[in-house]
Specification:
The chain is α/β, with parallel strands linked by helices. Helices cover 32% and strands 18% of the residues. The chain has an eleven-stranded mixed beta sheet with strand order 14-13-12-11-10-9-6-5-4-3-15, with helices on one face. A two-stranded parallel ribbon has the order 1-2. The protein binds S-adenosyl-L-homocysteine.
């Protein structure tokens, strides 16, 4: 049996070619794109503006949706975590984070993750597989439909962050294709300027991203100010050590648009990477490379099997002040959705939450 084409992963012009190949006029492809990406429909049955015969023909060799929501968890702070599965039964997680000015959706680029960062729960799954462009796009469609209603325009616009499970830069082509599809004004219309993608430091792809005009914003996960410690916490550092990584960041910085910054993320682990000396080392490292990036300090989100504890608030504040005193703009990220295992580093396909009363039946989500 041939693989069914997942239509949510096609650009508008690919959809046009797809329908033309079976003798349909081009405008049917555009209609289909609008149904999938603008009206955010996930089944052919709902596309009642398309002739029944055309829809029946589509079901022969294509599918409108590919992910199935298995659970939805709602945090006390309003954050929502969706646990879904792929057609081949692998877990995918997406997080919807309501914010005052603009809501954010955090999507996954892989099922599981091949990187062995010692402070991250996703690492424990290992890599199951990379997600397709369609599976990336569909995560956003599902989260938007659940948050606002099917096809309802987000009232305040949407930010996307590629900070869910997986390493986006090890799934670069599908990632970029998904972003291209989502940017389309005839579809979701989420432009790259509203998207931030985070990498653990895949240097060749940082350099490649720098050459792409319509690129998303970049965030880099650092977690340590020295190679010795970073090798231990993020083994990817053995392949691309700090000096190589920061040189690539410098290259990237040269291509920034006016007013644009990029971000370093630094997870704060109690008595591991949070002392004053390490704050000074980090500041010196960034200043030596003359990087004008900002730093986000992420309080560690604890999870049972991980051997770390969050740094006390006072330590985080002290760390922030040292960086600021050396001219580095530093922010402390507020954890969201910790109570439902939706926060940074907590995505590991958990079927439960520490508090289990807030799970909703996803029957209406499918
Ligand atoms: N693989 C990419 C994308 C994941 S982003 C990357 O590493 O950048 C996930 C972010 O959460 C990273 O910045 C990571 O450093 C951070 N993180 C991982 N585990 C965490 C934990 N337990 N607590 C807080 N932040 C964590």
């Amino acid at each position: 049996m041939t693989e069914m084409t997942h239509l949510a992963g096609l650009t508008q012009s690919e959809l046009v070619s797809f329908v033309e190949a079976s003798g349909e006029p081009a405008y049917r492809g555009r209609q289909l794109f609008a149904a999938l990406q603008h009206r955010r429909l996930r089944s052919f049955d709902e596309m009642t503006d398309l002739p029944k015969q055309f829809r029946e023909q589509l079901t022969q060799n294509a599918k409108a949706s590919s992910l199935t929501v298995t659970s939805r968890y709602i945090s006390a702070d309003g954050t929502r975590r969706y646990l879904m599965k792929t057609h081949d039964n692998l877990p995918v997680e997406t997080v919807f984070i309501p914010e005052e000015r603009r809501d954010t959706i955090c999507f996954s680029s892989q099922s599981g993750c091949p990187l062995q960062c010692t402070f991250c729960l996703t690492a424990q799954l290992g890599l199951l597989r990379s997600l397709t462009a369609g599976e990336i796009v569909e995560q956003i469609v599902i989260a938007l439909n659940d948050a606002y209603g099917v096809g309802v325009k987000p009232p305040r616009g949407t930010n996307l962050v590629g900070m869910g499970a997986g390493e986006p830069f090890l799934n670069f082509d599908s990632l970029l294709k998904a972003l291209r599809i989502m940017a389309s004004p005839e579809g979701l219309h989420i432009v790259p300027n509203r998207v931030t993608v985070s990498t653990a430091g895949v240097v060749p792809r940082i350099l490649e991203l720098a050459t792409i005009p319509d690129r998303p914003h970049l965030a880099i996960s650092l977690a340590a100010p020295t190679d010795e410690l970073r090798n231990e916490l993020m083994p990817i550092n053995k392949k691309w050590p700090l000096e190589t990584l920061l040189n690539a960041c410098k290259e990237f910085e040269r291509t920034l648009r006016p007013g644009e910054r990029f971000t370093f993320e630094y997870v704060m682990l109690d008595r591991v990477n949070d002392n004053e000396e390490q704050a000074r080392q980090l500041a010196n490292l960034l200043n030596r490379h003359e990087l004008k990036a900002k730093v986000n300090l992420i309080p560690h989100n604890p999870a049972d099997p991980l051997p770390y504890h969050p740094s006390p608030e006072g330590k985080v504040e002290q760390f922030r002040q040292i960086l600021e005193s050396k001219g580095i703009h530093t922010y402390v990220r507020r954890p969201r959705g910790r109570d439902i295992f939706a926060a940074c580093g907590q995505l590991a396909a958990r079927e439960q939450t520490p508090i289990t009363h807030n799970e909703t039946s996803p029957t209406e989500l499918k």
